[in-house]
Amino acid sequence: MKEPSVGQIRATFPQHSRFRSTVKGCGLFVLTFAFYLTFCWLGLMTDRWPVKIALGLLIGLSYSILFVIGHDACHDSLTPAGWLNAVLARIAFLPSLHPYATWELGHNQLHHGWTNLRGMDYVYPPFSKAEFDALPWHRRWRERFYRTVFGVGFFYLIEVWWNHLIVPRPAEWAKLAKGIYYFDLGLVVLFAASETGLLLYLDRAASPGHQAFDVFALLLLPFLFWNWISAYVTVQHHTHPNVAWFSTREEWNYFNGQVRGTVHVKLPRPIELLFHNILEHTAHHADPKIPLYNLPECQSNLEKRFAGDVTIQNGSVFKFSTNLNVCQLYDYEQHRWLKFDGTPTTDRLFPRSGTEKA
Fold it and tell me: Across residues 211-222, what is the average pLDDT?
Protein backbone atom coordinates (compact mmCIF):
# COMPACT_ATOMS: atom_id res chain seq x y z
CA MET A 1 0.00 0.00 0.00
CA LYS A 2 1.34 3.42 -0.95
CA GLU A 3 2.16 5.48 2.10
CA PRO A 4 0.39 8.81 2.65
CA SER A 5 2.02 11.99 1.39
CA VAL A 6 2.87 15.03 3.50
CA GLY A 7 -0.25 16.76 2.20
CA GLN A 8 -2.51 13.82 3.03
CA ILE A 9 -1.11 13.60 6.56
CA ARG A 10 -1.50 17.31 7.24
CA ALA A 11 -4.98 17.34 5.73
CA THR A 12 -6.14 15.49 8.85
CA PHE A 13 -5.61 18.69 10.85
CA PRO A 14 -8.29 21.43 10.82
CA GLN A 15 -7.15 24.69 9.30
CA HIS A 16 -7.83 26.62 12.52
CA SER A 17 -5.23 24.49 14.32
CA ARG A 18 -2.47 26.49 12.60
CA PHE A 19 -3.72 29.79 14.00
CA ARG A 20 -1.04 31.41 16.16
CA SER A 21 -1.95 33.79 18.96
CA THR A 22 0.33 36.52 20.27
CA VAL A 23 -1.69 36.70 23.49
CA LYS A 24 -1.55 32.95 24.15
CA GLY A 25 2.10 32.62 23.17
CA CYS A 26 3.35 35.58 25.20
CA GLY A 27 1.05 34.71 28.09
CA LEU A 28 2.49 31.19 28.35
CA PHE A 29 6.02 32.56 28.13
CA VAL A 30 5.48 35.19 30.87
CA LEU A 31 3.69 32.73 33.17
CA THR A 32 6.40 30.09 32.84
CA PHE A 33 9.24 32.60 33.24
CA ALA A 34 7.53 33.93 36.38
CA PHE A 35 7.52 30.42 37.87
CA TYR A 36 11.22 30.09 37.09
CA LEU A 37 12.08 33.41 38.77
CA THR A 38 9.86 32.60 41.77
CA PHE A 39 11.61 29.28 42.44
CA CYS A 40 15.01 30.97 42.11
CA TRP A 41 14.02 33.68 44.61
CA LEU A 42 12.60 31.15 47.09
CA GLY A 43 15.79 29.12 46.82
CA LEU A 44 17.85 32.15 47.78
CA MET A 45 15.60 33.06 50.69
CA THR A 46 15.64 29.72 52.52
CA ASP A 47 18.47 28.44 54.73
CA ARG A 48 17.15 24.88 54.99
CA TRP A 49 19.17 22.59 52.73
CA PRO A 50 16.37 20.05 52.05
CA VAL A 51 14.16 22.92 50.90
CA LYS A 52 16.96 24.27 48.70
CA ILE A 53 17.36 20.83 47.09
CA ALA A 54 13.61 20.61 46.46
CA LEU A 55 13.55 24.10 45.00
CA GLY A 56 16.58 23.27 42.87
CA LEU A 57 14.61 20.40 41.35
CA LEU A 58 11.66 22.74 40.77
CA ILE A 59 14.00 25.21 39.07
CA GLY A 60 15.16 22.38 36.79
CA LEU A 61 11.53 21.53 36.08
CA SER A 62 10.87 25.18 35.20
CA TYR A 63 13.85 25.06 32.80
CA SER A 64 12.09 22.19 31.03
CA ILE A 65 8.72 23.90 30.82
CA LEU A 66 10.32 27.15 29.67
CA PHE A 67 12.31 25.21 27.07
CA VAL A 68 9.08 23.80 25.61
CA ILE A 69 7.94 27.40 25.05
CA GLY A 70 11.27 28.22 23.39
CA HIS A 71 11.05 25.05 21.30
CA ASP A 72 7.69 26.18 19.91
CA ALA A 73 8.98 29.69 19.30
CA CYS A 74 12.04 28.31 17.49
CA HIS A 75 9.65 26.48 15.15
CA ASP A 76 8.07 29.92 14.55
CA SER A 77 4.75 28.54 15.75
CA LEU A 78 4.28 30.22 19.15
CA THR A 79 3.14 33.63 17.87
CA PRO A 80 2.43 35.09 14.40
CA ALA A 81 5.52 37.36 14.52
CA GLY A 82 8.77 35.75 13.42
CA TRP A 83 10.99 38.33 15.13
CA LEU A 84 9.08 37.90 18.41
CA ASN A 85 9.40 34.12 18.23
CA ALA A 86 13.17 34.43 17.75
CA VAL A 87 13.49 36.75 20.76
CA LEU A 88 11.30 34.59 23.03
CA ALA A 89 13.11 31.41 21.99
CA ARG A 90 16.53 32.86 22.75
CA ILE A 91 15.40 34.02 26.21
CA ALA A 92 13.63 30.73 26.97
CA PHE A 93 16.75 28.74 26.02
CA LEU A 94 19.09 30.70 28.31
CA PRO A 95 18.40 28.96 31.67
CA SER A 96 19.15 25.56 30.09
CA LEU A 97 22.22 27.06 28.33
CA HIS A 98 21.17 26.24 24.76
CA PRO A 99 22.43 28.41 21.89
CA TYR A 100 19.53 29.18 19.56
CA ALA A 101 21.51 28.74 16.32
CA THR A 102 22.76 25.20 16.96
CA TRP A 103 19.40 24.09 18.37
CA GLU A 104 17.58 25.41 15.30
CA LEU A 105 19.97 23.53 13.01
CA GLY A 106 20.07 20.28 14.98
CA HIS A 107 16.40 20.16 15.92
CA ASN A 108 14.43 21.93 13.20
CA GLN A 109 16.55 21.04 10.18
CA LEU A 110 18.16 17.70 11.05
CA HIS A 111 15.89 16.02 13.61
CA HIS A 112 12.60 17.17 12.09
CA GLY A 113 13.89 17.04 8.53
CA TRP A 114 15.25 13.49 8.81
CA THR A 115 13.61 11.91 11.87
CA ASN A 116 15.12 8.48 12.67
CA LEU A 117 17.57 8.57 9.74
CA ARG A 118 21.01 7.72 11.07
CA GLY A 119 23.73 10.10 9.95
CA MET A 120 21.30 13.03 9.77
CA ASP A 121 19.23 12.83 12.96
CA TYR A 122 21.74 12.71 15.83
CA VAL A 123 19.15 12.42 18.63
CA TYR A 124 19.61 8.92 20.15
CA PRO A 125 20.47 6.90 17.00
CA PRO A 126 21.22 3.30 17.98
CA PHE A 127 24.49 1.60 17.01
CA SER A 128 24.49 -1.54 14.92
CA LYS A 129 26.08 -4.62 16.50
CA ALA A 130 29.21 -4.28 14.34
CA GLU A 131 29.57 -0.59 15.19
CA PHE A 132 29.12 -1.25 18.89
CA ASP A 133 31.69 -4.06 18.92
CA ALA A 134 34.22 -1.80 17.17
CA LEU A 135 34.00 0.90 19.85
CA PRO A 136 36.72 1.21 22.50
CA TRP A 137 35.78 -0.39 25.82
CA HIS A 138 35.06 2.92 27.56
CA ARG A 139 32.65 4.02 24.81
CA ARG A 140 30.88 0.65 24.95
CA TRP A 141 30.55 1.09 28.71
CA ARG A 142 29.13 4.57 28.21
CA GLU A 143 26.59 3.32 25.67
CA ARG A 144 25.41 0.65 28.10
CA PHE A 145 25.08 3.33 30.77
CA TYR A 146 23.28 5.72 28.40
CA ARG A 147 20.61 3.09 27.73
CA THR A 148 19.44 3.13 31.36
CA VAL A 149 16.78 5.26 33.02
CA PHE A 150 19.42 7.23 34.95
CA GLY A 151 22.02 7.30 32.19
CA VAL A 152 19.87 8.92 29.49
CA GLY A 153 20.38 12.29 31.16
CA PHE A 154 24.14 11.99 30.71
CA PHE A 155 23.61 10.99 27.09
CA TYR A 156 21.79 14.26 26.51
CA LEU A 157 24.38 16.25 28.48
CA ILE A 158 27.43 14.81 26.70
CA GLU A 159 26.33 13.54 23.30
CA VAL A 160 23.68 16.15 22.46
CA TRP A 161 24.29 19.34 24.46
CA TRP A 162 28.10 19.38 24.50
CA ASN A 163 28.96 17.42 21.35
CA HIS A 164 26.49 19.17 19.06
CA LEU A 165 24.92 22.27 20.59
CA ILE A 166 27.96 23.81 22.29
CA VAL A 167 30.72 22.34 20.09
CA PRO A 168 29.16 21.61 16.66
CA ARG A 169 30.52 18.73 14.60
CA PRO A 170 32.35 19.66 11.33
CA ALA A 171 29.33 18.83 9.13
CA GLU A 172 27.10 21.02 11.30
CA TRP A 173 29.70 23.78 11.52
CA ALA A 174 29.67 24.05 7.72
CA LYS A 175 25.92 24.74 7.78
CA LEU A 176 25.93 27.35 10.55
CA ALA A 177 25.92 31.10 10.07
CA LYS A 178 29.07 31.76 12.08
CA GLY A 179 28.15 35.26 13.28
CA ILE A 180 24.78 34.16 14.61
CA TYR A 181 26.32 31.10 16.27
CA TYR A 182 28.93 33.21 18.07
CA PHE A 183 26.23 35.69 19.11
CA ASP A 184 24.01 32.95 20.55
CA LEU A 185 26.91 31.17 22.24
CA GLY A 186 27.99 34.50 23.70
CA LEU A 187 24.49 35.02 25.13
CA VAL A 188 24.66 31.61 26.81
CA VAL A 189 28.14 32.24 28.28
CA LEU A 190 27.13 35.72 29.45
CA PHE A 191 23.95 34.36 31.06
CA ALA A 192 25.84 31.56 32.85
CA ALA A 193 28.46 33.98 34.17
CA SER A 194 25.84 36.54 35.19
CA GLU A 195 23.57 34.12 37.05
CA THR A 196 26.56 32.65 38.91
CA GLY A 197 27.87 36.09 39.84
CA LEU A 198 24.45 37.32 40.89
CA LEU A 199 23.86 34.22 43.02
CA LEU A 200 27.18 34.65 44.82
CA TYR A 201 26.55 38.36 45.35
CA LEU A 202 23.04 37.88 46.75
CA ASP A 203 24.17 34.93 48.83
CA ARG A 204 26.55 37.10 50.83
CA ALA A 205 23.55 38.81 52.37
CA ALA A 206 20.87 36.11 52.24
CA SER A 207 22.87 32.95 53.05
CA PRO A 208 26.41 33.83 54.18
CA GLY A 209 28.75 30.85 54.15
CA HIS A 210 26.47 28.78 51.91
CA GLN A 211 27.75 29.96 48.53
CA ALA A 212 29.26 26.66 47.39
CA PHE A 213 26.18 24.66 48.38
CA ASP A 214 23.86 27.18 46.72
CA VAL A 215 25.81 27.02 43.46
CA PHE A 216 25.26 23.26 43.53
CA ALA A 217 21.61 23.31 44.66
CA LEU A 218 20.37 26.29 42.63
CA LEU A 219 22.54 26.11 39.49
CA LEU A 220 24.23 22.74 38.92
CA LEU A 221 21.44 20.49 40.22
CA PRO A 222 18.71 22.24 38.17
CA PHE A 223 20.85 21.96 35.03
CA LEU A 224 21.52 18.24 35.57
CA PHE A 225 17.85 17.60 36.37
CA TRP A 226 16.83 19.47 33.23
CA ASN A 227 19.10 17.21 31.15
CA TRP A 228 17.46 14.13 32.62
CA ILE A 229 13.92 15.42 32.11
CA SER A 230 14.71 16.35 28.51
CA ALA A 231 16.15 12.91 27.82
CA TYR A 232 13.38 11.07 29.70
CA VAL A 233 10.77 12.71 27.49
CA THR A 234 12.56 12.81 24.14
CA VAL A 235 14.16 9.35 24.17
CA GLN A 236 10.68 7.86 24.50
CA HIS A 237 9.51 9.84 21.49
CA HIS A 238 11.74 7.90 19.08
CA THR A 239 12.99 4.79 20.90
CA HIS A 240 10.36 2.05 21.09
CA PRO A 241 10.02 -1.64 20.10
CA ASN A 242 7.55 -0.58 17.38
CA VAL A 243 9.74 2.19 15.94
CA ALA A 244 12.19 1.59 13.11
CA TRP A 245 15.43 3.46 12.40
CA PHE A 246 16.97 3.81 8.95
CA SER A 247 20.46 4.01 7.49
CA THR A 248 19.62 4.99 3.89
CA ARG A 249 17.50 7.72 2.39
CA GLU A 250 16.02 5.21 -0.04
CA GLU A 251 14.24 3.40 2.81
CA TRP A 252 13.36 6.48 4.83
CA ASN A 253 10.35 8.65 4.06
CA TYR A 254 8.27 11.31 5.77
CA PHE A 255 5.55 8.92 6.93
CA ASN A 256 8.01 6.41 8.40
CA GLY A 257 9.88 9.14 10.26
CA GLN A 258 7.21 11.55 11.42
CA VAL A 259 4.19 9.30 11.97
CA ARG A 260 5.44 5.73 12.44
CA GLY A 261 8.71 6.88 13.99
CA THR A 262 7.28 9.26 16.61
CA VAL A 263 5.63 7.98 19.78
CA HIS A 264 2.75 9.58 21.67
CA VAL A 265 3.85 9.25 25.31
CA LYS A 266 0.89 9.46 27.66
CA LEU A 267 1.24 10.87 31.16
CA PRO A 268 -1.46 12.09 33.58
CA ARG A 269 -3.27 15.04 31.98
CA PRO A 270 -2.06 17.61 34.57
CA ILE A 271 1.55 16.72 33.68
CA GLU A 272 0.79 16.96 29.95
CA LEU A 273 -0.71 20.41 30.53
CA LEU A 274 2.34 21.39 32.59
CA PHE A 275 4.51 20.56 29.57
CA HIS A 276 2.20 22.52 27.26
CA ASN A 277 1.02 19.48 25.24
CA ILE A 278 4.45 18.69 23.74
CA LEU A 279 3.80 15.01 24.55
CA GLU A 280 1.22 15.06 21.73
CA HIS A 281 4.37 14.52 19.74
CA THR A 282 3.24 12.71 16.60
CA ALA A 283 1.08 15.65 15.60
CA HIS A 284 3.96 18.01 16.32
CA HIS A 285 6.25 16.03 14.01
CA ALA A 286 3.60 15.75 11.31
CA ASP A 287 3.34 19.56 11.23
CA PRO A 288 5.74 21.60 13.44
CA LYS A 289 3.90 24.80 12.55
CA ILE A 290 0.95 23.82 14.74
CA PRO A 291 1.20 25.79 18.02
CA LEU A 292 1.53 23.69 21.16
CA TYR A 293 -1.78 24.99 22.46
CA ASN A 294 -3.55 23.41 19.42
CA LEU A 295 -1.84 20.00 19.45
CA PRO A 296 -4.37 17.82 21.36
CA GLU A 297 -7.09 18.04 18.70
CA CYS A 298 -4.56 17.33 15.94
CA GLN A 299 -3.12 14.32 17.77
CA SER A 300 -6.61 12.90 18.22
CA ASN A 301 -7.37 13.32 14.51
CA LEU A 302 -4.08 11.70 13.53
CA GLU A 303 -4.68 8.69 15.76
CA LYS A 304 -8.14 8.17 14.29
CA ARG A 305 -6.95 8.41 10.69
CA PHE A 306 -3.73 6.36 11.08
CA ALA A 307 -4.67 4.20 14.06
CA GLY A 308 -2.39 1.30 13.16
CA ASP A 309 0.62 3.50 12.51
CA VAL A 310 0.72 5.80 15.55
CA THR A 311 2.42 4.23 18.56
CA ILE A 312 0.97 5.20 21.94
CA GLN A 313 2.67 4.25 25.19
CA ASN A 314 2.36 4.84 28.91
CA GLY A 315 5.12 7.18 30.05
CA SER A 316 5.87 5.38 33.30
CA VAL A 317 9.46 4.86 34.47
CA PHE A 318 8.88 1.08 34.43
CA LYS A 319 7.74 1.14 30.79
CA PHE A 320 10.66 3.39 29.87
CA SER A 321 13.12 1.00 31.52
CA THR A 322 11.54 -1.96 29.72
CA ASN A 323 11.88 -0.24 26.35
CA LEU A 324 15.53 0.61 27.01
CA ASN A 325 16.23 -3.06 27.77
CA VAL A 326 14.62 -4.04 24.46
CA CYS A 327 16.05 -1.20 22.35
CA GLN A 328 19.82 -1.33 22.89
CA LEU A 329 21.25 -1.88 19.40
CA TYR A 330 19.58 -1.95 15.98
CA ASP A 331 19.92 -4.27 12.99
CA TYR A 332 19.62 -1.84 10.06
CA GLU A 333 19.48 -4.65 7.48
CA GLN A 334 16.79 -6.78 9.14
CA HIS A 335 15.16 -3.76 10.84
CA ARG A 336 14.82 -5.13 14.33
CA TRP A 337 16.03 -4.14 17.77
CA LEU A 338 18.81 -6.10 19.50
CA LYS A 339 20.32 -6.59 22.93
CA PHE A 340 23.95 -5.57 23.37
CA ASP A 341 24.96 -9.20 22.84
CA GLY A 342 23.20 -9.23 19.45
CA THR A 343 20.07 -11.15 20.51
CA PRO A 344 17.01 -9.91 18.53
CA THR A 345 14.30 -8.46 20.77
CA THR A 346 11.66 -7.56 18.16
CA ASP A 347 10.28 -8.86 14.89
CA ARG A 348 11.12 -7.11 11.63
CA LEU A 349 9.76 -3.54 11.73
CA PHE A 350 10.23 -2.52 8.08
CA PRO A 351 8.85 -2.82 5.49
CA ARG A 352 5.32 -3.20 6.75
CA SER A 353 1.92 -2.57 5.23
CA GLY A 354 0.08 0.59 6.13
CA THR A 355 -3.18 0.53 8.07
CA GLU A 356 -4.50 3.95 7.12
CA LYS A 357 -8.13 4.58 7.90
CA ALA A 358 -10.15 6.37 5.27
Answer: 93
